[in-house]
């Protein structure tokens, strides 16, 4: 007897969610998606999406972490039935998973958390997946994970990290490392730019690092692409936001007495990037003037 095609719901069809829907469908998974943007949505409402799914239902949530995810989880709790499963694939804090699982579990609805990495390129290259939940529930939706992950051995793009919360915890640490790696490339770029008298080809230098060197990586490949489009990055403002995972990583490091100076420095650098003028550096300039008579640059009227 031919195995029935898996059919899931997907809430949130933005840059990541929309691409994931495309990859899932290409991998043989039927997807009914819902998004507030009617132009990309398959259903007019979450309720209509749920009604289109065969029981037991599986719904993947791919919306911004925090209050929006909380609201979606609560709505699904009212719409789904015992035996259904919710997967939170957004960037939720791992501690939120405990609350979401408890809320849904009280209604007999199962829960899995999935840290997802791959960005806008995941639709072509596949997504790295870090999953938390019971072995039974993870096995139940393994065809979904297999459709999303990169081609090749499963263990190179997928890991069942542990129980509920473990997937998002692993993704949090992944993103903390990502912050630090990006900051290191950024600082190297600035130093190379500072010696343009000596270094005549900054983009070419990074490009030459793509093969054979110990710093070769996908992040390096992406920086090379960015420099090909804008060799001095003159068209970009040096303003960098953060989505929360770096902060959570540092908080967890403090709670567990683990030193993460590189990750901490990278998130603090992002804070500095958002200042037009630094109050801290004003204080340093004032102190140098007071104790040593060093000159200060007066602010413009």
Automatic annotation (TrEMBL):
**Has UniProt tagged this entry with the keyword Ubl conjugation?**
no
Which residue ranges does the record assign to the 6-phosphogluconate dehydrogenase C-terminal domain? Answer: 167-295
Q: Which Pfam families match?
A: 6PGD, NAD_binding_2
Q: Keywords for this entry? A: Gluconate utilization, Oxidoreductase
- What PANTHER family would the database entry show? 6-PHOSPHOGLUCONATE DEHYDROGENASE (PTHR11811)
Q: Would you identify the family this protein belongs to, as annotated?
A: Belongs to the 6-phosphogluconate dehydrogenase family.
Task: State the protein's name.
Answer: Decarboxylating 6-phosphogluconate dehydrogenase
Organism of this sequence: Mycetocola tolaasinivorans
Which gene is this protein's source?
A: gnd
């Amino acid at each position: 007897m031919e195995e029935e095609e898996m059919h899931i719901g997907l809430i949130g069809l933005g840059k990541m969610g929309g691409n994931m829907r495309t990859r899932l469908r290409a991998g043989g998974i039927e997807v009914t998606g819902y998004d507030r943007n009617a132009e990309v949505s398959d259903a007019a409402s979450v309720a209509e999406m749920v009604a289109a799914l065969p029981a037991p239902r599986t719904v993947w949530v791919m919306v911004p972490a925090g209050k929006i995810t909380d609201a979606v989880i609560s709505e699904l709790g009212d719409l789904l039935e015992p035996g259904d499963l919710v997967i939170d694939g957004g960037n939720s804090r791992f501690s939120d998973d405990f609350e979401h699982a408890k809320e849904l579990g009280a209604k007999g609805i199962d829960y899995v958390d999935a840290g997802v990495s791959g960005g806008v390129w995941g639709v072509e290259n596949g997504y790295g997946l870090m999953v938390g939940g019971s072995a039974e529930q993870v096995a139940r939706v393994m065809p979904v994970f297999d459709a999303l992950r990169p081609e090749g051995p499963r263990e190179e793009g997928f890991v069942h990290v542990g129980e509920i919360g473990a997937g998002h915890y692993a993704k949090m640490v992944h993103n903390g490392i990502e912050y630090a790696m990006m900051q290191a490339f950024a600082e190297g770029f600035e130093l190379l730019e500072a010696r343009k008298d000596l270094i005549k080809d900054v983009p070419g230098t990074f490009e030459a690092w793509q093969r054979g060197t110990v710093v070769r990586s996908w992040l390096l490949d992406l920086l090379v692409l960015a420099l090909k489009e804008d060799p001095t990055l003159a068209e970009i403002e040096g303003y960098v936001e953060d989505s929360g995972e770096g902060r959570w990583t540092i908080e967890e490091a403090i709670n567990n007495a683990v030193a993460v100076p590189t990750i901490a420095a990278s998130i603090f650098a992002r804070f500095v990037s958002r200042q037009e003028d630094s109050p801290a550096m004003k204080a340093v300039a004032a102190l140098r003037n007071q104790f040593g008579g060093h000159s200060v640059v007066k602010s413009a009227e």
